[in-house]
Amino acid sequence: MKTILCCTALVETSPQALPLGAACIASSLSASSDIKASASVKLEAFSLEDIGDSVPETAAEFIASSLQKKYKSIDFILFSVYVWNRQVLEECAALLKKSCPSAVIIAGGCEVTADPLSFKNFDFCISGEGEVSSVSLMKELLRLTSSELSEKIKAGCDFEIQGVYNLNHSYSSGTLRSVMPDVSVLPSPYLDGTINLSEYGGALWELARGCPFKCSYCYESKGEKKIQRFSRERLVKELELFSKSGISQVFVLDPTYNADKKAALDMLKEIRLKAPDIFFYFEARAEFIDRELSRAFSKVNCALQFGLQSSNPDVLKKVNRTLNKEKFTRNIGFLNQDGVVFGFDLIYGLPGDTLSGFKNSVDFALKLYPNNLEMFCLSVLPGTDLSDSAESLGLVWQKEAPYHVIKTSGFSQNDMNEAGLFSFAADLFYNKGRAVPWFMSMIQYLHMKPSVFFEEFEAFLKLQYPAAMAERNCSAYSFEDVKKIQKEFISDFFSKRNFLKAVKLAFDLIELNGAFSILTAEGKESSVSLFYHSDDLMSEAVLDWNFFIKNARPYKNITRVFKTKNGPDFKIVKK
Ligand code: SF4
Fold first, then answer.
1. 215 lines ligand 1 (CB under 6 A)
2. What rounded mean pLDDT belongs to the chain?
3. In degrees, to the nearest 5, what angle opens at C-alpha 415 toward C-alphas 413 and 421?
4. CA 218 – ligand 1 centroid, Å
5. Residue 42 Cβ < 6 Å to ligand 1
6. Sign of the CA dihedral running 109, 111, 117, 122
7. Which of 274, 371, 383, 458 would be a feasible disulfide site paired with 425, CB 3.0-4.6 Å?
8. How many whole angstroms from 128 Cα to the centroid of ligand 1?
9. Is the pLDDT of residue 389 over 50?
């Protein structure tokens, strides 16, 4: 019996980091009776975050030696290669080639799909969705004896399977992707037990493949325009399994979940019935949100993320996206009215954009009260439409992962660096500092654009926390650390502008809202010392800081924030 390993390296250890791609391949291989008769298929996933600095060897050495220790003989390995693990897995393949020369090493995944011929350490590369071609390839390979196999590999044989490349072969033409699988017959890696949910605490839930949009920077720009949806029956069974397994969160993989309103409403209803205790993350399109969908989302334990990318329609046009600002604002308003949690993504370094244009996008986004605002540097991913046109658009970018833009005709190299520092400052204050409940009322009181406030915060960080600015790693800071930094900055910034009375209000809001967010996110109850009465701080009056400061009476107290069966509550425990 031969062993086939489907292996990957995950970027981090989290309920949202699962080896779904490798597991889908493992499931399809296991479902083939021909393959099952002569090989056993195993899934192996390593977390690069866990490996980190915890072992003396490199991540590649660690993965190679761990696999060799666990398996007496390695016959076939299929690696799932992504931007974050390409270098590690290429090195790992080279090490395995030396220590187990008879092992056949195959690569697939997004990075391989983009440019299969750029990989040199694998015997075969599979471009495109690999379920069909990996099964065809493994059937061919399992039929051969070891000596026949090495001859075929040396001879550059690719078995004439579409999307499969033997790197000893010389190619003159462009590459073709694998034949698309029919998703209605694909086995589920959850239902067949390939993925053990208890190991991860969360799930990536694939509802559909393909995207009707063609944003030029996305792998989907050259992917399948047609959407294939997994069957309702399969999805409902997976939902029941998620619920039974006790996982806390599910990240929904469907880039335009709400594009088909009927299907979206139907699945939201199923989620409400079958998995009411799980938190769901959706990627959605704002132009397809209406009142009915907004209400349906509000009844589910979930958060929505929208790829806004820029608030400038002319900039978006250059990357093949559109934006109707009025409609976007109106539809996001439905979510705010219904209390749905949502966030936006923005990109800096887009062709046609500038640093001040990017900051305008931040201002536009924050006025819509997102729960989080994620800001990314544009990557020119190989194999995308953007990579074909990037040079003519004036982009200069890294030629190796993560393929970040270095400069454009609108962003100098210095502007790109500045956009990164600005994004870090905004991320730390707004997202990590959980400032959403009070940020915009503070901004209105200051008569200042959000971006100007973040520029001030950025300048403060450069002066007081230069190491933090050099590292730009938000996850290195606990919420307590960020609260301390927020308070230091607010105290300094408000005092210089003679807004002394507002300092106490800001501190109270940081503490009280912080206690609520800790209770919601981590289930921890806590007590906070306040200058104002907590009833006043939780009232609508706090939306107008001028009014509040003029009218609210000081009432020093300790307020406890605690759980009840109807949700979080608070009460004064000491005056
Ligand atoms: S960015 Fe999202 S909407 Fe655009 S092509 Fe990619 S998956 Fe589709």
1. yes
2. 94
3. 110
4. 6
5. no
6. negative
7. 458
8. 16
9. yes
Mean of pLDDT values over 235-259: 93
Atom number of ligand 1 nearest to Cα 256: 3
Q: Is the distance from CB of 373 to CB of 426 less than 8 angstroms? A: yes
Token pair, residue 457, equals 């915060």
Domain 2-166 has CATH 3.40.190.10: no
Token couple for 111:
């990075």
For residue 570, the number of C-alpha atoms closer than 13 Å in the C-beta half-sphere is 28
Domain locations in the chain as residue ranges: 2-166, 196-411, 437-575
Question: What whole-number distance in Å separates Cα of residue 166 and Cα of residue 106?
Answer: 9
CB of 220 within 6 A of ligand 1: the answer is yes
By the 8 A CB rule, do 446 and 455 touch?
Answer: no
Task: Reply yes or no on whether the pLDDT at 174 is more than 60.
Answer: no
Please work out whether the CB of residue 214 comes within 6 Å of at least one atom of ligand 1: yes
pLDDT score of 25 more than 50: yes
Dihedrals phi, psi of 54, to nearest 5 degrees: -80, -10
Compute the average pLDDT of residues 478-506.
95
Classify 196-411 by CATH class. alpha beta
Give the percent of the chain with pLDDT over 70: 99
**Atom 2 of ligand 1 has which residue's CA nearest to it?**
255
Please name the amino acid found at residue 21: G
How far apart are the CA of 361 and the centre of ligand 1, in A?
A: 19
Q: What is the mean pLDDT of residues 336-353?
A: 97
Highest mean pLDDT among 50-64, 113-127, 144-158, 444-458: 444-458
pLDDT band at 175 (very low <50, low <70, confident <90, very high): low
Range in 209-218, 314-323, 344-353 the model is least confident about: 209-218
CB-ligand 1 contact for 67 (6 Å cutoff): no
What is the number of the ligand 1 atom nearest to the C-alpha of 321?
4
Q: Tell how far the Cα of 449 is from the centroid of ligand 1, in angstroms.
A: 30
First to last CA, the chain: 74
Count of residues in the chain: 575
Q: At what angle do helices 450-464 and 355-366 cross, to 10 degrees?
A: 110
**Ligand 1: does its nearest atom lie under 6 Å from the Cβ of 370?**
no
Q: For tokens 């206690």, name the residue.
A: 515
Tokens, residue 285 = 């399109």
Q: Could you read off the pLDDT of 97-126 as tens digits, one per residue?
A: 999 999 999 999 998 988 888 888 999 999
- Angle of the 261-274 helix axis to the 291-298 helix axis, nearest 10: 20
Amino acid at 371: N
pLDDT at residue number 475: 86
Beta-carbon count within 10 A of 281 CB:
19
Q: Give pLDDT, residue 222.
A: 80
- CA 305 to ligand 1 center in whole angstroms: 13
> Which one-letter amino acid corresponds to residue 384?
T
Of 218, 257, 305, 374, best ligand 1 pocket probe by most atoms within 8 Å of the beta carbon: 218
